Amino acid sequence: MTTIDAPRSKAPQPRARRVNWEKWGWIYMRASGVVLLVLIFGHLFVNLVAGEGVKAIDFAFVAGKLADPFWIVWDTLLLWLALIHGANGMRTLVNDYASKPIVRRILLGAIAGSTIVLLLLGTLVIYTFDPCPAVGPAELLPSFCPAR
């Protein structure tokens, strides 16, 4: 005669705790989306509505903004949150539609690589921007730079 063990007759084995990256990616998309709304509309208001509008945006306007630590932090947050938000969205699309594992790995690697490069270059531009460099011909300097 064959006997069938009672369900759950054996004690369940404890599973190793792992980080649920999908859950944290989902939470990040919602939280960063809310913060990005504030950052983007603030950016658009300052650049397009306040002051003289879009015709006032030139090299001097950007140089003035990047001389203020508040706008450096604002632009850095905007850059990092938007790029990581976009990369996470692209990662989700690749996971949903790339059926072959090798293609998925290649695409995810390309997304990660391009995101890292853009984050590094964008951050470098924000923090090293100098409208009045010490070297270079004086005639190429903007008019607001002191004579050197």
From TrEMBL:
<keyword id="KW-0349">Heme</keyword>
<dbReference type="Pfam" id="PF01127">
    <property type="entry name" value="Sdh_cyt"/>
</dbReference>
<feature type="transmembrane region" description="Helical">
    <location>
        <begin position="106"/>
        <end position="129"/>
    </location>
</feature>
<keyword id="KW-1133">Transmembrane helix</keyword>
<dbReference type="InterPro" id="IPR034804">
    <property type="entry name" value="SQR/QFR_C/D"/>
</dbReference>
<feature type="transmembrane region" description="Helical">
    <location>
        <begin position="27"/>
        <end position="50"/>
    </location>
</feature>
<keyword id="KW-0479">Metal-binding</keyword>
<keyword id="KW-0472">Membrane</keyword>
<protein>
    <submittedName>
        <fullName>Succinate dehydrogenase</fullName>
    </submittedName>
</protein>
<keyword id="KW-0812">Transmembrane</keyword>
<dbReference type="InterPro" id="IPR000701">
    <property type="entry name" value="SuccDH_FuR_B_TM-su"/>
</dbReference>
<feature type="transmembrane region" description="Helical">
    <location>
        <begin position="70"/>
        <end position="94"/>
    </location>
</feature>
<dbReference type="GO" id="GO:0016020">
    <property type="term" value="C:membrane"/>
</dbReference>
<keyword id="KW-0408">Iron</keyword>
<dbReference type="GO" id="GO:0046872">
    <property type="term" value="F:metal ion binding"/>
</dbReference>
